Amino acid sequence: MKLNVFTLGLIFIFLNGFNLFSQDIPKKLLAIFAHPDDEQTIAPLLVKLVEEEIEVTLVIATDGRLGVNEYNDYEAGDGLAEIRKQEMLCAAEVLGVNLIHLDYHDQLKAGEGFDGHIPHVQDLIFELKKIVKKIQPDAIITWGPDGATTHMDHRLVGASVTQIFVSQQWEKPIELFYFGIPSDLISDERAKTLRGQLRSYLTVQIPFNENHYDKAYQALLCHESQYPPGVVGKIKMDRKQLGKTIYLRQFMAPSQIRTSLF
Question: CA torsion, points 216, 27, 102, 161, in degrees to nearest 10?
């Protein structure tokens, strides 16, 4: 039996198409944080993944309108929010990531009480869910329960992402990771309780190199309203104490149903 070119082509696609198409589909990471400049927490990893041709999308939830500090003389409000929006665009370009910068208020309107805060946060949850459904990432990184600094926005954004993650069965498998700092790298006992985690929980430990490190801090220079160049230099030196590793804790669902606590 003779096979024509069209039939041979179909057979080739059937036998080999899965491998071909799977190689053409890049892995996707969705990194979701609270404020412009929060991305710095995992910036060396973002640089590394972009270099490895992973499709990286960075979501920043708030506008940073309350980001006044000892390094600037800005007034809180719309003007500062616009400045930080431009700074975030600059940083995303340096890192090479796709940026989705939402416009929720810094501190998520906590100062407006229950009636201001709760609708604002609920809107954020539904908008983040739409982003997850649209991007269909292979992995998500966000804040864990500690929020790294115990900042309420950090913790609430991380909790919101977790709730979205566990609320439904997704079309494709997604892995959820939380940024973490090993307790043994924190000398202060108070800080260790507030933000440290045992290494036995931080089972994803991703190394990065000096080039990734340098580019990450080049991106931090974009956030000039928050960190003047001299301060960035000090932060960069201090970060070296953590070594050239990003530590992550994976959210793990139980594999069995239990009928007793003990």
Answer: -100
